[in-house]
Amino acid sequence: MSRLDEGVEETAAETGFSGVVRVDVDDTVMLVKAFGLAHRGHRVANTVDTQFGIASGGKAFTALAVVSLIEDGVLGMSTPARSVLGDDLPLIGSEVTVEHLLTHRSGIGDYFDEDAGGDINDYVLPVPVHELVDTEQFLRVLDGYPTKFTPGERFSYCNGGYVVLALIAERSSGIPYHQLVRQRVCEPAGLQDTDFLRSDELGARPARGYLTVDGPRTNIFHLPVLGSGDGGIYSTAGDIHSLWAALIGGRIVPAARVADMVGPRSDVPEESARYGIGFWLHESGPAVILVGGDAGVSFRTVHDPVARITHTVLSNTSDGAWPITRRLDELLGT
After folding, report:
1. Residues contacting 13, CB < 8 A, separation 6+
2. Would you say residue 113 has pLDDT above 90?
3. Confidence at residue 116, expressed as pLDDT on a 0 to 100 scale
4. Distances in whole angstroms, Cα of residue 308 to Cα of each of 129, 176, 282, 311
5. What are all long-range contacts of 178-181, with beta carbons under 8 Å and residues at least 24 apart?
6. CA-to-CA distance for 266 and 252, rounded, in angstroms?
7. How confident is the model at residue 110 (pLDDT cuts 50, 70, 90)?
8. Which among 316, 318, 314 is positioned nearest to 328, based on CA atoms?
9. Beta-carbon neighbour count of residue 196 at 10 Å?
10. What pTM does this model have?
11. Is the pLDDT at 328 greater than 80, yes or no?
């Protein structure tokens, strides 16, 4: 057994990890392993092809869909949000642009303000989760939060801003947000196992999200029944690898747009990271990162274009991915 295998197995055993771990060098799979249960009630094991929610990892899909519309001239980076929102969400100022929203520099108030802290397993949605299916239905959730700061002044991670982007993309293109992501991101990237799935209609392949490492309670009442622009799409370890390949290969948006998206727009010292457009960046190195964490979901994938290493951890518990992904950083030097 290699040092990499040993490190992953050891950490998984120590923490009761439930999920999938995959490591690739270029197109060679160096490690792929599944641990734990996708459905605890029926004792269904996770497999390497299990679909997991990736929470805020889905922001990259929203960003790519929006940037593809910018590439086509449907939107511009300087397009004011107000010009698309009309009379909706009146507390979003006229100065806020698509670029501000993409880079988390809009200053708009957030329905789920991570700066305020709180437990990841808290119930945070102000409306019944089953009513949040279409993007327009999120207007009730997004409305009523005052501006935090002048647009462009600084970085502040904003979940609501990415739902606003989904709304802008939908209204500008005339295509429902979920369909737009499928057409603009999933199809060109060849993602066969990535989609928005209703939490109350999960089939055999998706993992249920659990709040603790060993308890029976799931996240079905914590999250929108169908994900939106700020996260909630389901994917597999294989599809995440394909996403990186398609992104770097310019198959979703052209290479020049990709370079802009993974170029640093903000330093985020409190996260020991930087941020571009839809993607986190290593604080000083070349690695590009996606992270998602929510009740019953934890996810991190890292692509180092210099070392040509990609590692991905998907977990169906609230905190399960973090010890494994930290161990991979140590073992792989990413």
Report:
1. none
2. no
3. 74
4. 40, 35, 15, 10
5. 178/226, 180/65, 181/61, 181/62, 181/65, 181/233
6. 24
7. very high
8. 314
9. 21
10. 0.97
11. yes
Count: domains in the chain: 1
Which pair of structure tokens corresponds to residue 313? 């951890």
Rg (alpha carbons) of the chain, rounded to whole number: 19
The token pair at 255 is 């290479």
Could you list the residue range(s) of the whole structural domain that residue 81 is in?
Answer: 3-332
Task: Give the burial class of 279: count Cβ atoms within 10 A of its Cβ; 0-12 exposed, 13-18 middle, 19 or more buried.
Answer: buried
The H-assigned helical ranges of 229-304 are: 237-248, 255-261
CATH code of the domain containing 237:
3.40.710.10
pLDDT at 1 over 70: no
β-pair partners for 292: 299
* Torsions phi, psi for 40 (to 5 deg): -70, -35
Contact (CB, 8 A) for 98 and 277: no
Predicted local distance difference test score (pLDDT) of residue 248? 96
Q: What is the mean pLDDT of residues 18-28?
A: 96
Distance CA 115, CA 82 (A): 25
Task: List the beta bridge partners of residue 35.
Answer: 19
Q: Are 107 and 150 in contact (CB under 8 A)?
A: yes
